Prior knowledge:
- The protein has nine helices and eight strands.
- The protein is of the alpha/beta class.
- The chain has an eight-stranded mixed sheet with strand order 3-1-2-4-5-6-7-8.
- Helix 3 (83-95) links the parallel strand 4 and strand 5 (99-104).
- Helix 3 (83-95) packs parallel to helix 4 (110-116).
Amino acid sequence: MEGYIHSIYTGGMVDGPGIRTVVFFAGCSLRCLYCHNPDTWFRKHGEKKSIEEILKEVLKYASYYKFSGGGITVSGGEPTDQPTFLRELLKACRVNGIHTVLDTSGCADEGAADDILPYVDLLLLDLKAYNPDSYRRLTQSKIERPFATLRVAQRLNVPTQINYVLVPDLTDDISEFTEMAAFLKQFKNIQKIEILPFHKHGELKWKDLNIPYKLADTRSPATEELERFKGILTAYGFNR
């Protein structure tokens, strides 16, 4: 079995616990305005690789995973756009005792999430927005699937971290964020909600791909803005 892989990065330290090998899948159905990896949107920018080829690369660093509590992180692009290949890769890692992290927008079909999540040790779920209109404006997609993925993760008791990118004038509505925090309170498998400040590190990639970058004039959030949103999470019992 082969899948479309954009790249493999070894020595990752921010994509889950410990030292990790990060496998970036090629292909994504979303078109997030702040995406910093637009080069992973298209499968044609990837290379076909077998599970055996990837596993061989991952297992080279098994000793590093063992002493650091690390493992493999599957990212993208959107890994769940290749659901069968993703499931079999995660299953192979599980068989070999490798800790698995899935970094996803959660846009898998609900049936696919049921197949994939049993082999995930930690789910990093990127919630782009809470309001359906905000989500569509940001991603050109519908919000229902990420919430469906979250419900499957809760049912299977998969430890989950929510990642939320704070973008001034786009995802910084206080009332919407507060509603989201209240909604997420019901999911007992959520261990943490991470607020990530918007940055433009991927802007040059958009230009190289000749894709208009609509956030060129958008600033990064100030420290006090980040702290205000973190305070809302604390008020709802997160990240204590």
